Fold these 3 entries.
Entry 1:
Amino acid sequence: MGRKMYKVLRPFNHNVVLCTKDNKECILIGKGIGFGIKSGDSIINVNNIEKEFFLVDNYNREKFQNLSNIVDENIIGITEEAIASISKKLHKELNEKIHITLPDHIGFALKRLESGIEIKNVLLHEIKFLYKGEFEAAQEVWETINNGLNVNLPEDEIGFIAMHIHASINNQDVSKSSIDTSIISDMITFIEENINIDLNKESLEYCRMLTHLRFALERSRNKINIKNILIESIKENYKETYDLASKLADMVYKDYNVKFPEGEIGYLTIHIQNILSSKNT
């Protein structure tokens, strides 16, 4: 990495240090780089630095400073180690907001745990399927937090952490990523209630439908209208199922202001019909 000098602002643990370099704040991660140092020291030997994150945005830098004053430094330190691991595992650069949102979330999760308050993640299965890479990375973060801080965060937290990772990769707010998962969950509930079937969430048909719903939402938001050359045949051969898919689309438009075009409704009809057919075989 060459010979650089970092001025220490504060160490968070033995492996994570907040520094300045060329008047820019950065977070350094590396084995033992924080051992025995204090604010005002310089880090000249960079051989042990494995990752550096710069906080470029003034707002994010201020938020991180405020967060570091209210969240235990051990939580910030181990979360920053986890963020470096996420970036390495997924081979992706993460939006710098994750340095605020993830330690903030972990801090609150640990407070809830201490108070005996448990929040169930009703979308855990959907998140695990829709965001496989993020979920696997989140599982490692969850294990790192539990082992490193000697706590026992519930498995539901893996899903919440995965949404933070997904949002960071896609430069979204966590609320935006979470709302998509909520829409999909509401759609699944609507289908189950209207066909009077508890869907087998391990089935191939269910997994295919989840995938379609995820990308259908993206296409609809981006005004991408895919052509469905079989639409008239679908309407004719699967009239009841098409009517159900149309009602589902109306619900999504009414509740979330996302409008599915006719072609998407046709493909959704096929997915629902496949589930119905699999139940009859």
Note: The CA atoms of residues 112 and 118 lie 7 Å apart.
Entry 2:
Amino acid sequence: MFIDAKTRVCAVIGNPVEHSLSPAIHNAAFEKEGLPICYVAFRVEDLAPAVAGIRALNLLGVSVTIPHKVAVMAYLDEIEETARQIGSVNTILNRQGRLIGYNSDGTGALRALREAGIELSGKRIVVLGSGGAARAIAFSIGKAAPLSTMTLLSVEPGPCERLAEDLARTLPFPVRWFEHTEESLAQCLKEADGIIHCTPVGMNPHPDATLVPASLLRAGQFVFDAVYTPLKTRLLREAESAGCRVVPGVEMFLYQAAFQFECWTGRRAPLDVMRKVVMECLS
């Protein structure tokens, strides 16, 4: 990549950021498209001056990761509606000094499901988890498709109830929630057309863990797992064996990065190159 005085800069801010795959993915995409843009990683502890620096240095766009996704909202000029409802931002566009916040996590999950041919309209969906990923995915899916019902299950009743209340105020279909127990899980999955897993269970270094016993999975359901390390979790392996349609979390990761690329550049993302880099990094 050739860098000169005309090169624009994008970045990821967070703490830590040393593990981030975003520089490799976005730089490959910018290079493929011949764009004079580079992408770097900044470890940020003090958020306010970092956001001021986006304006002062005229950065083109920024990815926001842990622990700043919620706090950064207070420093932005505008927040896209769904990101505001989700309550967190992971993408910033600098539009002539005006900083606009988006959340590409839910958008990435929604596109991953659509690209896999999953029909959501009229379906009974169970969401496992009530944290940031669950909020992003539940709001994005619920606003995009008229589900029959959405049911939330979580081991944390407080956040789960609050998320259900927030969703119910916005979405035009019934939203239910239950504390996650063996009994509630079995009952909810018996009625479910699709399962969306949004907890860290099954992530490396514990790839043999799962929240869903294989006996509860059945042919005809779809199963999406937001975990992408390992590439195919135990949940997805067992769902595939049961005859379910499966959507791996790496697809969400890929499409959320594609959303960021398209937001910053106004161009269609080169998905083939981005996918190749993601798979090389995760392999």
Note: The domain at 8-102+253-282 is CATH 3.40.50.10860 (Rossmann fold).
Entry 3:
Amino acid sequence: MNVAAHVAANVAAPKENLTAASRRQLILERLLALVCLAAPFLAAALMTGTAAALVGPARLAPELEPYVVTVLNRSGDSSGFCTGSVISPTVVLTAAHCVGAPDDTRIFFKDAKGAPVLVETAAVAINPGFRPDAIRRRITSIDLALVLLAEPLPSAFTPVEIAKGALPTPGQKFLIAGFGVADEAQGKTGGILRSGILVDTGPKSSVLLWAADPARSGLGACTGDSGAPLLSFDRPAVVAVAVWAKGQGGNHCGALTQAVLVAPQRHWIETTMNAWSAAAR
């Protein structure tokens, strides 16, 4: 029996008959089934209006694969995927709206042979400034989360630097890298790492970054790119994390990408990681 058939056959199994280990295994199998089966309809599985994949003239970016992973999240009967930055062998930085409880959150990547790999989550930390209803209430939200992995990532991954120092200025260039869709009407275009150039459009902020395609060709974050890093143009350092996208002409993506600046959140990031390290000793 293949993974998908096994999951379908066990979805209705009484939870009281499952041991804790069986529950964990079933969750893993369901998430793996999502990876195997979701490609044709990834766009429909995600929240409309949140940042997703790179639409427009993005390019394939295999050189950035050591720095990013896919974040999978399950909530009830629905599932979604986002992008995350590897900031240590055991910690991934992503958007807060991309994660759930540790049992419902997994990190996904393909190994050197192209085989799918799922990594269990040991803990999840949500930035205290996150507001799930920020868009509706028109308030500022620090949409960031840290995911602690149950085991280190392979040595093929390289942690990216967390940017520090001066805040970005209008006109500054960034490289965004994400697994989102290349065409928001074609869900099967997601799941492939792509990158593109965006520039800071202003206004200057100590919390958020607004970025757009300098060529005005429609490139921007879309479904699956939530949590994607906006990297320094000259080195792999995360300046901001994509959290929301806006389109025009009836589209949801391609006109504007909103991201949360990480430099002002360095204290929270470092404090959380230090606490996790201390607890592991």
Note: The first strand starts at residue 59 and ends at 60.
